[in-house]
């Protein structure tokens, strides 16, 4: 089934409705897993220990997802979208099963990496299959359906995580993925038949390996520095210097690679660089708050996992509400002004979180999170579309993938940085007292405010419309 086949509408009742549902279900696996674990952190560490290691549950998942996305994209051109998508669903399901059975924090971190490897195929293949099956005019509606999955999952994820952690078992946060993955794969096998041409590519395995080792080394240094070893120790310096040198080597490799995992020409275009930088900051801000707001609500304010989920749900609720109106705003006032307004709003929300103390109520935290989410919703879409409108059709996929890659990498590095800040205050204890945890997480709020302020500065550097090839999105 391709875009040249019968076009009988886009909705669920159309001929392609079952395929659309399968794509939405597959997307929901990745979308839910991005937020569902946040409200169960204290429950998991109570059973498995390793509170100082829990940021790795987010970082390793996001890093594995980020570095595999470009590889899957090239493999899809060689063997087709369907086998890559089914492989991704299978690996994600395997990782979910192993996570549900984990008996130690180290094992859970390793199994989260397996999940991330699967997620790296599911997320981009959903978008690619939709592009193959639906015409250009139909894709706008299809993207609306897929975007609704992310919006719903961002709200439901923390709530479901809280329910499972408080009333059932945290293990069901992962085990619930098994029936969903099986149903999505079954529907995809039955309803999607490929006939698209395939091309041969050399895959940049060396680039992918160097990126993984370099970024992983820096995250290990950030997360374990001051814990497993001193910041000025030989281990810490070796990881920082070694990770930096590997990433420099990655840059040289990419300049010579036939099909680089991250083409160097993207760094020569101002709008792409600015858009990707903003995307990296967005990933760090969102994951920083979704990781630590529930922990603050539970560990400092003494709420249950469900109420903690409702609190961080305000953040993920503000995003889709603002994003749904972003198109009207940037068509009226332009990409640059919209990004500045959104980042300024996000900064205002972050500043309100600086006023949060151990005596604050959940409503105060929720309001701050909602404002931050609304600001990020106004920034993310306009900056991505601004970059896309400056690219030719043959380059648009690379520009989009670079933006997504930077957001995933920012999420992974952001959690690592915030984890290092918290661990520097909490120490090696698995059950930090509220009077210790509160100032530690306050460091996260400070970091979020600084990143949001940098985002404002980056937004002002967006080129004006006359500098782009296309002044309005397609």
UniProtKB/TrEMBL annotation:
<feature type="transmembrane region" description="Helical">
    <location>
        <begin position="405"/>
        <end position="424"/>
    </location>
</feature>
<feature type="transmembrane region" description="Helical">
    <location>
        <begin position="229"/>
        <end position="250"/>
    </location>
</feature>
<feature type="transmembrane region" description="Helical">
    <location>
        <begin position="170"/>
        <end position="189"/>
    </location>
</feature>
<keyword id="KW-0472">Membrane</keyword>
<dbReference type="InterPro" id="IPR020846">
    <property type="entry name" value="MFS_dom"/>
</dbReference>
<feature type="transmembrane region" description="Helical">
    <location>
        <begin position="144"/>
        <end position="164"/>
    </location>
</feature>
<feature type="transmembrane region" description="Helical">
    <location>
        <begin position="205"/>
        <end position="223"/>
    </location>
</feature>
<feature type="transmembrane region" description="Helical">
    <location>
        <begin position="20"/>
        <end position="42"/>
    </location>
</feature>
<comment type="similarity">
    <text>Belongs to the major facilitator superfamily. TCR/Tet family.</text>
</comment>
<feature type="transmembrane region" description="Helical">
    <location>
        <begin position="334"/>
        <end position="356"/>
    </location>
</feature>
<feature type="domain" description="Major facilitator superfamily (MFS) profile">
    <location>
        <begin position="19"/>
        <end position="467"/>
    </location>
</feature>
<feature type="transmembrane region" description="Helical">
    <location>
        <begin position="362"/>
        <end position="385"/>
    </location>
</feature>
<dbReference type="InterPro" id="IPR011701">
    <property type="entry name" value="MFS"/>
</dbReference>
<keyword id="KW-1003">Cell membrane</keyword>
<feature type="transmembrane region" description="Helical">
    <location>
        <begin position="117"/>
        <end position="137"/>
    </location>
</feature>
<feature type="transmembrane region" description="Helical">
    <location>
        <begin position="84"/>
        <end position="111"/>
    </location>
</feature>
<feature type="transmembrane region" description="Helical">
    <location>
        <begin position="436"/>
        <end position="458"/>
    </location>
</feature>
<dbReference type="Pfam" id="PF07690">
    <property type="entry name" value="MFS_1"/>
</dbReference>
<feature type="transmembrane region" description="Helical">
    <location>
        <begin position="299"/>
        <end position="322"/>
    </location>
</feature>
<keyword id="KW-1133">Transmembrane helix</keyword>
<dbReference type="GO" id="GO:0022857">
    <property type="term" value="F:transmembrane transporter activity"/>
</dbReference>
<dbReference type="GO" id="GO:0005886">
    <property type="term" value="C:plasma membrane"/>
</dbReference>
<keyword id="KW-0813">Transport</keyword>
<feature type="transmembrane region" description="Helical">
    <location>
        <begin position="54"/>
        <end position="72"/>
    </location>
</feature>
<feature type="transmembrane region" description="Helical">
    <location>
        <begin position="271"/>
        <end position="293"/>
    </location>
</feature>
<dbReference type="InterPro" id="IPR036259">
    <property type="entry name" value="MFS_trans_sf"/>
</dbReference>
<keyword id="KW-0812">Transmembrane</keyword>
<protein>
    <submittedName>
        <fullName>MFS transporter</fullName>
    </submittedName>
</protein>
């Amino acid at each position: 089934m391709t875009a040249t086949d019968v076009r009988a509408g886009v909705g669920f009742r159309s001929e392609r409705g079952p395929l659309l549902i399968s794509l939405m279900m597959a997307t929901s696996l990745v979308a839910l897993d991005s937020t569902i674990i946040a409200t169960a952190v204290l429950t998991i560490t109570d059973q498995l220990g390793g509170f100082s290691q829990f940021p790795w549950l987010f970082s390793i998942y996001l890093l594995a997802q980020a570095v595999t996305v470009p590889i899957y994209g090239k493999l899809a051109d060689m063997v087709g979208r369907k086998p890559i998508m089914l492989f991704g669903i299978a690996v994600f399901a395997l990782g979910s099963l192993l996570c549900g059975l984990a008996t130690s924090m180290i094992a859970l971190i390793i199994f989260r990496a397996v999940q991330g490897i699967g997620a790296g195929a599911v997320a981009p293949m959903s978008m690619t299959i939709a592009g193959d099956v639906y015409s250009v005019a139909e894709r706008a509606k299809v993207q609306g359906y897929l975007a609704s999955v992310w919006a719903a999952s961002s709200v439901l994820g923390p709530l479901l995580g809280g329910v499972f952690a408080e009333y059932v078992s945290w293990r069901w946060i992962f085990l619930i993925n098994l029936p969903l993955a099986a149903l999505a794969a079954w529907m995809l096998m039955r309803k999607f038949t490929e006939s698209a041409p395939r091309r041969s590519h050399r895959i940049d395995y060396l680039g992918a390996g160097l990126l993984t080792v370099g970024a992983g080394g820096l995250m290990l240094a950030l997360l374990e520095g001051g814990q497993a070893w001193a910041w000025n120790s030989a281990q810490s310096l070796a990881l920082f210097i070694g990770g930096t040198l590997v990433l420099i080597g990655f840059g040289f490799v990419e300049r010579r690679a036939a099909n680089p995992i991250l083409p160097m020409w993207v760094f020569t275009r101002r709008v792409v660089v600015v858009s990707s930088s903003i995307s990296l900051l967005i990933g760090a801000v969102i994951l920083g708050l979704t990781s630590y707001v529930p922990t603050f609500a539970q560990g400092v304010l003494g709420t249950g996992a469900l109420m903690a989920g409702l609190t961080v749900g305000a953040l993920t609720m503000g995003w889709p509400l603002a994003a749904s109106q972003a198109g009207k705003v940037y068509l009226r006032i332009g990409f640059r002004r919209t990004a500045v307004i959104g980042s300024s709003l996000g900064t205002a929300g972050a500043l309100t979180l600086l006023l949060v103390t151990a005596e604050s109520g959940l409503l105060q935290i929720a309001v701050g999170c909602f404002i931050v989410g609304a600001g990020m919703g106004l920034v993310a879409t306009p900056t991505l579309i601004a970059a896309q409108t400056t690219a030719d059709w043959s380059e648009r996929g690379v520009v989009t993938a670079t933006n997504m890659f930077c957001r995933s990498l920012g999420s992974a590095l952001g959690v690592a940085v915030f984890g290092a800040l918290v661990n520097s205050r909490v120490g090696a204890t698995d059950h930090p007292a509220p009077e210790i945890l509160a100032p530690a997480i306050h460091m996260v709020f400070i970091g979020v405010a600084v990143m949001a302020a940098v985002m404002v500065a980056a937004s002002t550097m967006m080129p004006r419309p006359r500098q782009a090839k296309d002044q309005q999105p397609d």
